[in-house]
Queue: 2 jobs
Job 1
Amino acid sequence: MIKETIITKEAPKAIGPYSQGIKAGNVVYTSGQLPIHPETGEMPDNIEEQTRMSLENLKQVIEAAGASLQQVIKTTVFLSDMNHFAAMNQVYGEFFSVNYPARSAIEVARLPKDALIEIEAVAMIQS
């Protein structure tokens, strides 16, 4: 099986020794996507806009691998505060409809750059 590194300028560059995503066969694994605007390097202030930015970044990495959000089978959402869950869930529902992916949501002590959210995914590319 060939492992292919996914790189796109449409999502923030990796801020360490990791890839934005990896394609292995017909499976795409993304790194956690922070809510960093790829052009400005800025993060929105509130959880709704941070969720939207993280999901937009996730979408760009998945599309660069040849898949789409409709092909996502699993997401993991890391939240700095579980009190943000309802607001995150509202925005999340704008990106995923019917045939929802499996999802875990986890509260963590701290995220890189003090983000409020980070989201990673696994997608299957249909042949």
Note: Strands lie at 3-6, 21-24, 27-30, 72-79, 102-107, 117-124.
Job 2
Amino acid sequence: MKLRRDLDQGESETIALAVELRADLVLLDEKEGRNVAAHFGLRPVGIIGVLLEAKKKGLTTELRPHLDALRNEAGFYLSDRLYLHALALAGEIVA
């Protein structure tokens, strides 16, 4: 019940299922959800982490178009600081 009080339904159910399945990680982007997941011993990974891993594994050659699509087409909030940091981690800009 505490999950439903502090988080939205989707985040609550995601964390509850991950705990039930004893998952190693859980896909969450919202800060509060990530904090709660960590409290339950889960490793939260966001969409940027997934995209960085995809580039590392050669599943995509560039991160920038995906970040731009998230911002411009999906309406995903991504601060300029995080955007540039992700590009630096991907080796697409020098930080």
Note: The chain has six helices and two strands.
